[in-house]
Each structure stands twice: as structure tokens, then as C-alpha cells.
Amino acid sequence: MDLATRERAPHPEAPAAPYARVKQFLKEGLSHGRWAPGALMPSEAELVARFGVSRMTVTRALRELLAEGLVTRVQGVGTFAAHLSKVSSTLTIRDLHDEIAERGHRHHAEVHTARQERASAELALQLGLNSGDAVFHTLIVHFENGVPLQCEDRYVNPACAPDYLSVDFTQTTPTHYLLQVAPLWEAQFSIEASQASAQEARLLRIGLGEPCLVLVRRTMSRGVPITLARLVHPGSRYQIDGQFKP
After folding, report:
1. pTM (whole model) above 0.70
2. Contact assessment for residue 218 and residue 160, using Cβ atoms and an 8 Å cutoff
3. Which residues, at least 6 apart from 228, have a Cβ–Cβ distance to it below 8 Å?
């Protein structure tokens, strides 16, 4: 039996579902170092041909590997082996609209700021710009069943998303849009318990002294900064779940 035939044969303990066979093949290859971190992995078309399954089946397998932090995907380029450490803490970047919808609740957003500004020296450093360069700024409040859940204060590098300010963010979220036009390669974040600013407290309809969960996140695509966001959540209305895995 040649190598290609052996790789096509199902593992005796593999789940029967077609997507699970594709996922296990890729996962085992990653664990055995078949694809080095950052290496381009088989395309969807190659996997469709190898396993004789539909593109939807392959997409599901890749989507689950992406959610587990094992691969990264760049639209129009392909799937890459992720840079992994032995134990990694993962914070999945998800669309808040999807989170709320999965709970069976209704999401809507109010846009309070959407404009081009000049970057301060500190902001320019974070976004890889020069002081005074143009930067896009949005301030949006997200609601769950009519209750303010998150105040999103975001700055965007115009080079990564030149049409950002033309998007109707009452119909889609910045996260959803940016993941489409500028797929992230790396994210840095900090989480702290803090008080909201006076403006944030007013927008979230909470008292000035009420504790909040504040997440500051910077994302990049192949070393180029995309966005810097401050996400403020009333402590009594939100929690962030982390996950550790070997």
C-alpha cells in the first residue's frame, strides 16, 4: 500500500462523520510535524479530492481546527499551521452578534461615532502609523434584548480596511466586517476589572462606580496592525470564558 493510499484509509478509531475524518487527518499531521508552524497546508480543493467529500464538509473541519487554535486562515491565500506552544491560553475572537443570537436573544447596535481622525503619537505607535496620520474611529454600543452589553471604542488602520467608515454598523458588527476584509494573524489583549469612564457609564446606563470588565485588544495581519479596540462590559452583565488545552 503506497503512502497516498495509507493516508486516505480511515483510522480504525476515527469517528465515522466525513468532516471528522478530514479533521483527524489534519490534526494528526499537525501533531506529527507534517506542517511546520506557519506552513501552508492542503487547500480545500486538495482535501475534497483526497477524501471524496463536499467542500462544505472540508470547510467544517477547517473551521473547527481554526476554533481550536490549530490553524489560521487567510482569505484568498489558504490555511496555515498555527504557531503553538505546549500549553496555550486561548481567547476566541467572536462576533458579539453571533454570541447573542446563540443565546436566542436579540442584538442591536447604536453608532455614536464614525469618523476619520488624526492619530495621536501613542495611538500611531499601536497601529504602526506616524503621528498625525489618518485613522478611523468608531464608538458603538451593543445591546442584548434592549439592555446595553458592550461599549466598543475602536480605532482602525485605514490601510487594512479602507472602506470601514462606509459600513452600516447597525446591520453588521466591526468584528464581522474586519474578519472578512483583514483576516487577523495575531492578537494581543489585556483584561482588567475597572470603572467605566463617564461617557462609557452614560452609554451603558450604569452608575459611575459600577465595576466593569474591560478588554483592550490589538489585532494584526502578518505583522501589520489592523485595529485597537477597548471593549467595556458592565460586570453584572457579562463574563469572558477562557480555555486551556495541551
Report:
1. no
2. no
3. 123, 126, 127, 154, 155, 216, 217, 218
Helix axes 18-31, 44-51, angle to 10 degrees: 120
For residue 83, name the pLDDT band (cuts at 50, 70, 90): low
3-state secondary structure of 28: helix
Strands (E), 103-185: 107-118, 134-144, 147-156
Q: Which residues pair with 151 in a beta bridge?
A: 141, 232
Residues 215, 187 contacting (CB under 8 angstroms): no
Which long-range CB contacts under 8 A does 52-60 form with residues at least 24 apart? 53/18, 53/19, 53/22, 57/18, 57/19, 57/22, 58/19, 58/22, 60/19
Per-residue cell: 217: 485588544
Q: How far apart are CA 164 and CA 174, in angstroms?
A: 8
- Taking the mean position of all CA atoms in its chain, how far away is CA 130? 26
pLDDT digits (tens, 9 = 90+) for 155-191: 999 999 999 999 999 999 999 899 888 876 778 888 8
Provide the pLDDT for residue 85. 41
By three-state DSSP, how is residue 102 classified? helix
**Cα dist from 24 to 6, 38, 51, 127, 201, whole Å:** 14, 19, 12, 38, 47
Rounded Cα distance between 221 and 107, Å, is: 28
